[in-house]
Each structure stands twice: as C-alpha cells, then as structure tokens.
C-alpha cells in the first residue's frame, strides 16, 4: 500500500483563531491557560481534518505558538541569557524571543527574524554563543504533542528541524564569533535524547527537516551531514525511523550528502519534478522515496493525472513498498480551507485547493496508485474536468494580452536617451536643489482613514463622499509637505489598503478571497490576491488621485506604483504559465499607467520593487541569472515608455544587494531609494566601485520605530554617505514609507531631515 503523508498543516485555524488568542493573551485579555487550551483545541481540530480526509501520515510538532524554529531554540536550551535572567515563565520567555518584551521593568528586544527560504514566512534565527551549551528540556514539545495526539487516538509523525539545518540557519549572537556549525558535536546529543524519548512514547517514524540541502552549502556544512546521520543511524532501533526531508528546491547538487541507510528521503517534486530520476537512483537499496506532488506553496487544485504519473514513475523505479505520496512541503504556506470563501465566483473557486482540500487530494492520489484509478474514478474525472475548464476558460486566456506580449520588442525596454541627457532634461523641468528631499510614498494611515474606508466598503458612505474624503487627505498631506519644505512631494497613499491588493483589485486577471490568510510571522497573516488569468488594465488605477495631488501642489509631485515583480511575488501566482510571462503582463499594465500619469502632468514616478530581492532563486547559477533577466526586464518595460524629462524612481526596502548589484544597476532608474539607516554606510561602496552614474537616496533614518532622529544624527549619516556618493547624486529620504507611523513623530523627524539637507546645501 502506498501511504499518503502531510508535512505540516497551517496553525492559525479556520478564523485565524490562533492569531486572536495570542494577541488577546499579549493584550492581557485572556490567561495563559486559556491560550494554551486554545492552542490544544486547534491542534486537535487540525489532526482531525487530516484524519477525516484519509491521510495516513499526519504530522505533529508542526504547530507553534509563534514559530517552529523558536520552539526548537527553547526546547534545546539555546535561549540567550538576556531572556532567562529575569525569570519569565517559559511561555513569556518564548514570546520575548519572538517579539521582544517591554513590561514590568523588563526590556529586551526580539531575536532576529528572517524569511524562511524563498517564502513569505519568517522564522526566528537561532542566536548562538561562543560557549554555547545545549540541554533538552524535561518535557520537549515534540513528545508532549505526540502524546496529545495519541490520547486522541491519532498516531502522528513528529516533525523536527534537523541538526545541520538548525545550525546552518542560525548565527552567532552579537559580539560572538562562533560559526554555528562548529557546535554540532554539542547539539547532537540533544537530538539523540529527543529521538529516544519519541521512540519510547511510541513514535515509529520522525520527519527530520534538512531543507538547507537545497542550498549551495559551505564545505564545513556539507561535511556535517555524514557524521550526523551516521551517528543517528548507529542508535538503531532505539530511535524512530527517520524521514530525511527537503523542499523548496532540488538536491541533485548535494546528492552525495544524502544519508545512505536512512529510512526515507522526501523531495519536492512540484518545484523540481526533474530531480526524481537522479534522486531515486541515488537512494540506498531499501530507502523509501517520499514524493512531494501536492503543492505546499500555492492554492491550485492538484492536477491528478500529472501527480499520479509522477508517482507511478517513482513506483516503477522503486516498487510500491518504497514510495510515499506527500505534500511538496508543509502546508503552512497555504490558507486553511476553501470552504470559508463564500464570495468567490464558483468558476474560479473550482480551480483552488487550500490546506484542508489538499489533505483530501493527497489521500485520493495514494488510493489511485495503490488500488488503481478505478477506485477513485469519480474524483479523477471531476479533477480532469476542472483542469480542462481552467485551461480553456476565458478568464484564464485573453488573446489580446497574448497578442500584445508577442509584439514586445527589445526597444520597448529602453528609455529614449541615456541618463546624462535624461537628467539634464529632468533638471530643467524640476529645478531641484542639491540634496533634494523626498519621502517614499505613504504617510500615516490614521484610524480616521481606516474608519472611512470601512464605511465605504460597507456601503455606509457613497463613492463620492469617499473620494471627497481622500481628496481632503491628499490636500492636507500636500500642505504638511509644503510646511516641512520637502522638495518632491507624494500624495501619501491614503486610498491604499495594501500595496499589491490595491492594484490587483484594479486589474483583470486577479481573484480575491475573504479568509485565505497565511501566516507571515508570529500572529501576522497576509491574504495574497490570486492571479488567475492573463492580466490587463481595464482603466487607469492611480491617475485620479495623482492628478488631483498635482493640482493642489506647488512642487513636483511623485506618482506611486507597485512594480511588476512585487505584484507577482506578493500574490499567489499562476502555475500554468511561467512567472516571467505573468511579470511581463503586469509590466505592460503598469507601463500604460506610467504613461497615463505622465500625460496627467506627473513628472516624477516611483515604481516600488521591495520584493525584487526575495524572488532571487536560492542557488546562484543559471536559474538565478534567468530570474534576474526577466525581473529586470519587467521593471524596465513598465517604466521605459516615458519622455526623457520624466523622472523614474524606484525603491527597495533593503540594502544588502552586493550579490545582485548589476541587476539593480540594470534597472536604469533615474533615482533609487534604498534602506540604509540600519546598515553600514560602507555598503554604499559598491556604488563607487561600479562608478554608478545615477542618483541614490539611501534612507537616512529608520521608519520602523517611533524614535525621532536628531538633526545631528542625520547630518552624521549624510556625512558618511558623502564618503561614497557624489553630492550631486545624493537624495535625502527616510528608509521606507511612513504608513505605520503617527503624525507627531513623522513631522518631527522630517523637520530634522529637511534641516540636515539644508545644512549640506550651504556647504557645497
Ligand atoms: N510606496 C510604498 C510606501 O511608502 C513603499 C512601501 C514599501 O516599500 N514596502 O508605503
Ligand atoms: Zn520600503
């Protein structure tokens, strides 16, 4: 019999119950006991969904109150001293590491949180000391939750982050120099103890996640796999059988690191179906292959025919008893259930499958390959019909869009003139001082704005009333910028709820959900729009607001758009056409918007691409080069339709772009604004080294904190920047948009920023 397996299930619950409970606990509204009871209720509910769906292998210890890596940090006794010294109980200590703690005289910031591989989920980084020790807690979460499921009559497969990945994903604490991987010998005994305990509790198998195997690894990390898994193998029957699990990429370049006698190896066959043959051939003679054929990262219904063919081809190589069918990764990255979507057009709803539906799919696939297709004929037929409907739907295919794409030429990606001619024309028109000041786009989203938007969505005020309100907000924003003495204004984005959804709602080819939340970090969830078909722009999207802003402004007004790559990355993309095709469609739609803004008298246009970097494939080489080429082209296509005198800005929320600086340079944006206030000004050296000719605004202060930087601080920062950038290149702006700030600190900080700029104008 071919078993079905799920690698992990979303934790939030059908109504974001976990978010509500944790936030209520943080706000002092429910007790710790209430929170833990709610967490337990959710775990049980989620196991039951999987069991009822007919899944054979159900995960446990995939749950976390905040983040699964953080759970390991605590269970392994790897909590930095600053969180233990005040005697917080273990739950509060856990949250202190996740989100900081500022209460009762205790003041500790959180540990660093970063993106989990190339997903939008963030994990807490193991933060390690030179003299780090590890010690397993008395009741490890993995054992507790295994027992919890067992008591409910559900046999589970505990999930652990493997030792090599745990260390590789960690870092040395501030002021420490340890290379985490050097701590392996100290960490391994903790895994041994934990695995022994799991076996004693009755666990037959354990899923041990080593997804770092998909990276290009340093030699030392590579060398760590063999001794680790030999050591674990030497424990024989004292520990459960191990499913060595990888996802989000292929492992072909690291095949020699696969443990030889391991019970099973899991690979992601949604992302990299082509690795099947090579990996299957490299397995030990008894090793089982866990074939990840149901997508854990997207919301599309699985194509049963294709998935079954993949599994059959694995069976042909290995035999039925050596194949498991599984989700490609944890389902953490998918929403809870499609059943909550009451407003979706039934035509498109039929194409989707969220976590709960994927559980059913995986069981059907296992049954099809075990008993033959006849056993699930009805489901296969319905699936084929749905695939066919999607492939041929007019919502998917728009011949006009395809036709336009076929006519795109290399020339469409290039501005009319080179930068020197452009900047001269722009300067003539804009007449900006040296060290021009500007902001990144949004101003504080006040509660008043949210109230009015809510009223409008609920139909309590008319569109006319709402538009009037937005105009007033814009007028107010302009007045404030006039008073502050900024040089290039923004309208402040009061009409935008979210930088991608706002555009998605105005484009053909998008669908929206009401409950399809996925966890981004801690209690924070996002609800990405879904790209269902060819994208086009039925009408201008931002021109009305920008045009109004220009009309009430005495200084140049910057139009504000979200770039094609960011729109794509922060949506659920289609899986039936390449992402480069979708990016190009978005680019063409935005290109029309850019040209319309120019026609409306907007002389400066900023196209934000904060997600450009996170789309970078995990390994360097062909795939990364290809990504950069189409991503850069999409940006250029969206912006190159304007006259020389129109100034194109772009913005990124990060400064570490050493590894793809050439791509940033290739965007050919007249002005770039980037995050820089929290990083070393030395990073700007790449601009000097490459003789970067265009303008740059490295953020001069951090907008993530309400703290107001002094004028002197900003001057010092600018002074540092001037070691690397020419005065005529340098713009003065904050790190990012100001939507999460209050007005009070926003104004104070901007006054200091403008004064600092004025100071340097007198010097040069
Ligand atoms: N223009 C956007 C804003 O100011 C940019 C946001 C971002 O880069 N994340 O809010
Ligand atoms: Zn930003």
Q: Tell me the β content.
A: 5-15%
Q: Which whole number gives the mean pLDDT?
A: 96
Query: What fraction, in percent, of the residue positions are helical?
Result: 40-55%
Task: Label the structural class.
Answer: alpha/beta
Count every beta strand, where a strand is a DSSP E run of 2 or more residues.
Answer: 24
What's the total helix number?
Answer: 27
How widely separated are the two ends?
Answer: 78 Å
Largest sheet: 8 strands, parallel
Radius of gyration: 27 Å
Brief overview, please?
This protein is an alpha/beta fold and 764 residues long. β22 (647-652), α24 and β23 (671-674) form a beta-alpha-beta unit.
What does this 3D model show about the protein?
The chain has about 775 residues and is an alpha/beta fold. Helix content is about 40%, strand content about 15%. The protein is built from 27 helices and 24 strands. An eight-stranded parallel beta sheet has the order 1-14-13-12-11-10-8-2. The chain has a six-stranded parallel beta sheet with strand order 15-20-21-22-23-24. The mean pLDDT is about 95. The site of zinc ion has 6 residues, from loops.
């Amino acid at each position: 019999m071919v078993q079905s397996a799920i690698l992990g299930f979303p934790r939030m619950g059908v109504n974001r119950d976990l978010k509500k409970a944790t936030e209520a606990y943080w706000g002092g509204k429910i007790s710790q006991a209430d929170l833990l009871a709610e967490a337990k209720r959710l775990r049980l509910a989620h196991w039951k969904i999987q069991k009822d769906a007919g899944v054979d292998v159900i995960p446990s210890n995939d749950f976390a109150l905040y983040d699964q890596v953080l759970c390991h940090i605590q269970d392994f006794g790897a909590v930095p001293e600053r969180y233990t010294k005040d005697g917080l109980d273990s739950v509060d200590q856990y949250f202190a590491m996740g989100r900081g703690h500022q209460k009762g005289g205790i003041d500790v910031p959180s540990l660093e949180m970063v993106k989990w591989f190339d997903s939008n989920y963030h994990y807490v980084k193991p933060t390690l000391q030179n003299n780090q020790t590890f010690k397993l807690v008395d009741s490890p979460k993995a054992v507790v939750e295994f027992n919890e499921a067992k008591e409910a009559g559900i046999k589970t497969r505990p999930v652990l982050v493997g030792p090599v990945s745990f260390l590789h994903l960690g870092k040395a604490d501030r002021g420490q120099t340890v290379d985490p991987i050097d701590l392996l010998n100290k960490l391994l005994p903790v895994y041994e103890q934990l695995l022994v305990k799991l076996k004693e509790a009755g666990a037959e198998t354990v899923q041990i996640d080593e997804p770092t195997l998909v990276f290009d690894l340093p030699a030392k990390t590579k060398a760590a796999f063999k001794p680790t898994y030999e050591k674990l193998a030497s424990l024989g029957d004292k520990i459960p059988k191990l499913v060595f699990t990888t996802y989000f990429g292929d492992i072909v370049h690291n095949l020699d690191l696969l443990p030889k006698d391991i019970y099973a190896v899991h690979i992601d066959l949604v992302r990299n179906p082509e690795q099947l043959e090579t990996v299957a051939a490299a397995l030990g003679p008894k090793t089982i292959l866990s074939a990840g054929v149901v997508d854990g990262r997207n919301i599309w219904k699985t194509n049963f025919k294709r998935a079954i063919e993949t599994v059959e081809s694995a069976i042909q190589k290995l035999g039925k008893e050596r194949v498991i069918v599984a989700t490609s990764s944890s389902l953490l990255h998918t929403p809870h259930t499609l059943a909550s979507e009451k407003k979706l057009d039934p035509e498109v709803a039929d194409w989707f499958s969220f976590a709960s539906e994927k559980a059913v799919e995986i069981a059907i696939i296992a049954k099809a390959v075990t008993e033959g297709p006849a056993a699930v004929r009805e489901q296969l037929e319905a699936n084929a019909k749905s695939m066919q409907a999607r492939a041929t739907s007019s919502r998917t295919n728009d011949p006009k869009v395809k036709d336009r794409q076929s006519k795109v030429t290399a020339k469409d990606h290039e501005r009319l003139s080179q930068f020197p001619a452009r900047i001269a024309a722009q300067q003539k028109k804009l007449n900006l001082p040296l060290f021009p000041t500007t902001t990144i786009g949004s101003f504080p989203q006040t509660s008043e704005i949210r109230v009015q938007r809510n009223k409008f969505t609920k139909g309590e005020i008319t569109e006319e009333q709402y538009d009037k309100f937005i105009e007033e907000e814009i007028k107010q924003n302009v007045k404030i910028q006039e008073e502050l003495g900024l040089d290039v204004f923004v309208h402040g984005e009061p009409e935008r709820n979210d930088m991608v959804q706002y555009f998605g709602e105005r484009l053909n080819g998008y669908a929206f959900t009401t409950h399809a939340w996925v966890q981004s970090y801690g209690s924070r969830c996002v609800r990405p729009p879904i790209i269902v078909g060819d994208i086009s722009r039925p009408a201008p999207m931002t021109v009305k607001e920008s045009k109004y802003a220009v009309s009430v402004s005495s200084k140049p007004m910057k139009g504000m758009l979200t770039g094609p790559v960011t729109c794509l990355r922060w949506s659920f993309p289609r899986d039936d056409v390449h992402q480069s095709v979708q990016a190009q469609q978005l680019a063409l739609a935005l290109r029309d918007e850019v040209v319309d803004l120019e026609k409306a008298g907007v002389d400066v246009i900023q196209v934000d691409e904060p997600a450009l970097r996170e789309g970078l494939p995990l390994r360097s080489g062909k795939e990364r080069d290809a990504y950069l080429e189409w991503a850069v082209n999409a940006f250029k296509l969206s912006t190159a339709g304007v006259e020389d005198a129109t100034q194109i800005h772009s913005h990124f929320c990060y400064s570490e772009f050493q590894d793809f600086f050439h791509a940033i340079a290739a965007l050919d944006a007249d002005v770039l604004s980037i995050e820089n206030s929290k990083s070393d000004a030395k990073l700007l050296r790449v601009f000097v080294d490459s003789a970067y000719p265009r303008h740059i605004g490295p953020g001069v202060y951090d907008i993530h904190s309400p703290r107001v930087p002094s004028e002197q601080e900003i001057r010092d920062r600018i002074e540092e920047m001037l070691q690397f950038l020419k005065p005529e290149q340098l713009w003065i702006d904050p790190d990012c948009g100001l939507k999460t700030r209050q007005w009070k600190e926003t104004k104070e900080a901007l006054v200091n920023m403008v004064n600092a700029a004025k100071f340097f104008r007198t010097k040069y």
